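Sequence in, structure out.
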Amino acid sequence: MASEKLRVGVIGVGFGATVQIPGFQSEGWDVVAVCSRRQERASKTAADFSIPHVYTDYQQMVERDDLDAISIVTPNSLHLPMTKAALQAGKHVLCDKPMAMDQSEAKEMLDIALETGLTAMIAHEFRFAPQRAYMKELLNEGFIGDFRLAALELLQGPRTVQDTKPVGWASDPTQGGGFMVALGSHFIDALRHLLGEITGVSGTLAILDPDRIDDSGALVRSEADDAFSFTASFAQGGQATMTGTREAPFGEGAKFKIYGSDGALSAPHPWFNPPPDGKVYGARLGDEDLRELPMPGKFLPFEDDRDHRLPSFRLLLREFARGIREGSSPSPNFYDGYRCQKVLDAIKESSSTGRWVDIAEE
């Protein structure tokens, strides 16, 4: 297979069409088929990217014998059945984050992946963003000494008067909606990747702007959180705090600060996601102040200005392809997705009970 073109079918044409299909094609994959529940959206995407086969039924698509892999880019409530169908059909899987609706679903997905031995990864592409990758290297080199504290913020919001938002699946927690699972999951994965296993949390979820408009024009209420905060402890010691919302007018974006016994690192960015040109600042005891640390070129080996998420996603795809060819599941894999899901579930439990929730190591 080393010299053969890998072939993929993509389920979902939102992020799937904006980032994933362009990413697969740029990395030399053959995108054979695309699937959406709406025929017109699937057909338009296929025409836009010269994809030969269109489906509205994912079960039919995953049974094709000319596909090596399936990429799942759908509401979270569909991840389990789609992943099961793909793995049981002998296809490698790249599943969007968060992995599932809860840890029991995530564990079922993990177990099936382990049983089949197929490559199974989660689309936590921002592990490969230059900021996060460089921070990981600096931490491994002992730049800050012993880890003590991480402080994270993700504050975004409007700058003009906004119309009431339309209702959608993201407003419905039964379909996997909510700001914490959508964006918080990326930051939880980053904390695990950079600082190790999370062993306990306390947290709070909130709905700051519940008003939505349905298809009839009636005012309805969103039941999905749009704000969250949590404190987390780590197996290696130390703790992290995070506050996030999309309802903070003039919010300044993200701040990611890590403090240790000997120094500090900081990786701010102005929007939800770390950009390709993100900067890392650092200082060690004895320095006058934080300073920009020159970014090694190896963390951004190419440019792709079509979408700021594409460089990181394409680097993730290189790991996915390597896993398929070597018979492994590189990180971020289904175990990483399962552990992230356990943290998400624990924050939800803490929010409903008001108690600290321990997360067992495995």
